[in-house]
Amino acid sequence: MIEHIASNLPKDFPWTTHIHHFDIIDSTNTKAKELGAKGAPHGTVLIADQQTGGRGRLGRSFHSPPGSGIYLSVILRPQCHASELMHLTCATGTAMCDAVEAACGIRPGIKWTNDLVLEKKKLGGILTELSLNSTGNVNFAVVGIGINCTQQPSDFPEDIRAIATSLKMAAAIPIDRSRVIGAMLVSLEKMSQILFTQKAQIMAQYRSDCITVGQEISVIAGENVRYGTALSVDEEGALVVQFSDGHTEAVSSGEVSIRGMYGYL
Ligand code: BTN
After folding, report:
1. Is the CB–ligand 1 distance for residue 228 below 6 Å?
2. Interval between CA 248 and ligand 1 midpoint (Å)
3. CA distance linking residue 226 with residue 186, whole number of Å
4. Which of 74, 114, 168, 259 has the fewest CB atoms in 10 Å of its CB?
5. How many H helices and E strands in the chain?
6. What is the pLDDT of residues 26-37, one digit of tens each?
7. Residue range 146-175: average pLDDT?
8. Model pLDDT for residues 118-157, shown as the tens digit of each residue
9. Which ligand 1 atom sits nearest the alpha carbon of residue 64?
10. Exposed, middle or buried by CB within 10 Å (0-12, 13-18, 19+), for 177?
11. Which of the four pLDDT bands, split at 50, 70 and 90, describes residue 265?
12. Would the CB of 33 count as within 6 Å of ligand 1?
């Protein structure tokens, strides 16, 4: 498996020697946090064929059946304070749009903040997690990405079937998972290089990829639901919302989830 992936990477790709593959694992993010705490270097990559405890944002699970999706986490070691890394999920989102476009010829959109979307359905998601020291500086970041690749509608559990899609369903071409993984790693490595030096360009691309901007949405924080219009995404990745009482507020992804007024989007 690692050989297949390596054959889809440039010869001098700096992360090739740090790729770990697992047939089955609870969560590549959980394992990456374990390895990160033991000192695993920047660019350590974990890829699994199946996850038994795939995790999403806000404590949700991520359905990760064998052989049909990509479940991948990378350890990054940016030298910065946590407050300088608020845009990491957005940067990963646009990097994954680049990767899917390069490998499959179709560019997903992004439902703020971390869902990859094709044909108004969820293609995948991103879960970023940080390890910080006592002053809030970053020890390491784990960027985890799940992408549905070869599923057919009947492969998805009933509760998500209506809102889930895969590359195979949307692109209607044969999908080579190793090729997609190769494109993802190339995009992630590039993203890690330009994360701070090209932040404005990254965020401009994110706004262009983000299908939530311009939509009427509900903003959900626990039991509290508020209605408004998504106006933009700010430089730190917060969603700027004009609420129905007229006031405007930047809502952060750590605090809320959003829904379209009429369904998933
Ligand atoms: C979401 O939908 O909210 C994010 C889903 C992120 C899933 C990926 S799969 C690889 C990595 N390992 C995990 O447990 N989660 C992420």
Report:
1. no
2. 31
3. 39
4. 259
5. 7, 12
6. 999 999 999 999
7. 94
8. 999 999 999 999 999 999 999 999 999 999 999 999 999 9
9. 9
10. buried
11. confident
12. no
Model confidence at 234: pLDDT above 80: yes
Ligand 1, pocket-test mutation among 145, 149, 177, most atoms within 8 A of CB? 145
Q: Is the CB of 28 under 6 A from ligand 1?
A: yes
Q: Read off the pLDDT of residues 5-14 as tens digits, 9 standing for 90 and up.
A: 999 999 999 9
Instruction: Using the CB atoms, write b or e for 153-167: b if 16+ within 10 Å.
Output: eebbeeeeeeebbbb
The contacts of residue 55 (CB under 8 Å, 6+ apart) are 27, 29, 30, 61, 62, 127, 144
Minimum CA distance residue for ligand 1 atom 16: 144
Ligand 1 center to residue 246 CA distance, Å?
35
Residues with Cβ within 8 Å of residue 229, at least 6 apart in sequence = 214, 215, 216, 217, 241, 242
Is the CB–ligand 1 distance for residue 182 below 6 Å?
no
**Rounded distance from Cα 115 to ligand 1 centre (Å):** 10
Q: 127-131, 211-215, 235-239, 252-256: which has the minimum mean pLDDT? A: 252-256
- With cut-offs at 50, 70 and 90, classify the pLDDT of residue 255: confident
CA 170 to mean position of chain CA atoms: 18
Whether omega for the bond prior to residue 229 falls within 30 degrees of 0, making it cis, is: no
- Residue 208 neighbours by CB under 8 Å, 6+ apart: none
| 55 CB within 6 A, ligand 1 | yes
**Distance, CA 198 to ligand 1 centroid (Å)?**
26
**CB of residue 148 inside a 6 A radius of ligand 1:** no
